[in-house]
């Protein structure tokens, strides 16, 4: 009898050792992958061209505005409160990191001044996109206290939208009282919360990120690991009332960018927490995307996986760029077979983006890098145009590939 606790103690210790070694294996194995010469040389050319293009774009933007898209021969700009305002400076910083061209850095820093006030914006869930993808990158490249304070204040503003009963951060604001809308895109804003915990030591942000991701895992996904776009929650019960779309083809369809946000979001959850349940989940989402019979051979999805197709059906380069970047990250955490599958898809996307079909010629396309993205087809908004976030994740994907 007296030996029972000791035996249990040994069993528990042994289990812990096995678990720790397994988890070590899961997230620290070395990816033995040899990047393809053809892809590397395409990337080098693309980065050179992207630098030329973004300098061209810089010279067309009014100084108090941020670029948004280029439509019918006209540059469309936004103010800093538009959800995409962080992508332009973020892309400039990525390109600076790759080229050390100081013009890009100066232009990126100038844009941060326009964005700074958004740290106090509690009216949007998009602070991750706006602040983490701009100030977050600036802080990695040129760490300083002022950027860190802006990141923490932005995380406080984002966290103010969290409802413990629902277990989520509110995405869109109420149209009717009692509305609590959460979109799959919101997974992307959680990285800001993880960064705020690292910078401040306050675990509140980390816990909110985990809760939001877990609620999203339980409610936002179908059994095939495709996701709904919008969930309407009841704030009294905390339960979802309605699952639907806003930017997709139908309530039961798989809106391409939504699938991409989910893939990227759960990959990031694993990067940040090393909890294997997020790795498994991201792998399931990846499997839905890359084995989807409606994914064209060039791996650039139609704007919705379930839209009826004809030769005019639009592709969404932004979804492909996000998928490529996420798959390169996800490959790092998987065994060789799966990693190679993911990297092969990412390579195809990058190579396709290196052709004239998707890549803009210098001085064309308003200075944006990629053509053929879709903002929101049901709203007839930004259809078949360049978008700042397509450019951002495209450059990020190439940077991640070079880091392999
Ligand atoms: N978060 C908005 C979009 O993906 O269009």
TrEMBL record:
Residues annotated to bind substrate: 126, 185, 245, 257, 261, 376
Presence of the UniProt keyword Hydrolase in the record: yes
Residues of the active site: 126, 185
Family matches, as SUPFAM superfamilies: Six-hairpin glycosidases
Domain of life: Bacteria
InterPro entries: 6-hairpin_glycosidase_sf, 6hp_glycosidase-like_sf, Glyco_hydro_88, UG_Glycosaminoglycan_Hydrolase
Biological process, per Gene Ontology: polysaccharide catabolic process
Statement: the UniProt record of this protein carries the keyword Hydrolase: yes
One GO MF term: chondroitin hydrolase activity
Alphabetical UniProt keywords: Hydrolase
Assigned protein family: Belongs to the glycosyl hydrolase 88 family.
Full protein name: Glycosyl Hydrolase Family 88
